[in-house]
Amino acid sequence: MRIYIPSTIPLLDAACHAGEFGPAPFTGYAVTPALREWYSDGDDEELEYAAMAQAARASVGLIAVDPDAPRKRVVVACEVSAVPPADGSVHLGDARLELHVVVPWTAVAAVHLDADGAEAVIGKAADSWDVAHGDTASSDHEDAVFALDSCEGEDLLWYATQEIPDLLAAEGPRRGVRDPG
């Protein structure tokens, strides 16, 4: 099963060096029965895109809690066995699932990453994350949700597994540097 793991540049670097994603349990995204039911007319490619989009949105949340992470969404595509939670916690259209296993680096199929030009949009969304997920009566809530939704207009670039070490080396010098705008 194709699983999409939301990440950040520092988390990706740590997983690459550790040889695994974990510890378990942690959240991943996939074509779940709830997603398939919600997009009943969608083909497999559209469903995979919807699952990856949810993982990309979750990546913004990870960036929001790490002020030193570069303002780029990271989604890691992996091939693993996983089962969505059966406790009723998944809502219609939800691609989220809980992984109860450590995912070995050998399961990584590709990495999806924002282009350099997306950093301002992603940064604004990360800075607005708490407001977007907070009190809906807040006057700033609508603007924060708009900032988060704006990320969907940014394309994620695809990187093969053999490109990841070079990608991390290229991103490394900018760690801890935030776009002030």
List keywords for this structure.
single chain, 181 residues, alpha+beta, four-stranded antiparallel sheet, two-stranded antiparallel ribbon, disordered C terminus, DUF6912
Structure described in brief:
InterPro entries: DUF6912 (IPR054206). By secondary structure, this protein is an alpha+beta fold.
Overview of the molecule:
InterPro entries: DUF6912. The protein has a four-stranded antiparallel beta sheet with strand order 1-4-7-8. The chain has a two-stranded antiparallel ribbon with strand order 2-6. The chain has helices at 9-18, 33-38, 44-64, 119-132, 141-150, 164-171; strands at 2-7, 20-21, 26-29, 74-79, 96-99, 103-104, 108-114, 156-160. The model is unreliable at 173-181 (pLDDT under 50). The chain has six helices and eight strands. Helix 1 crosses helix 6 (164-171) and helix 3 (44-64) crosses helix 4 (119-132). It has one domain. It has 181 residues and is α+β, with helices and mostly antiparallel strands. It is globular and about 45 Å long. The longest helix has 21 residues, at 44-64.
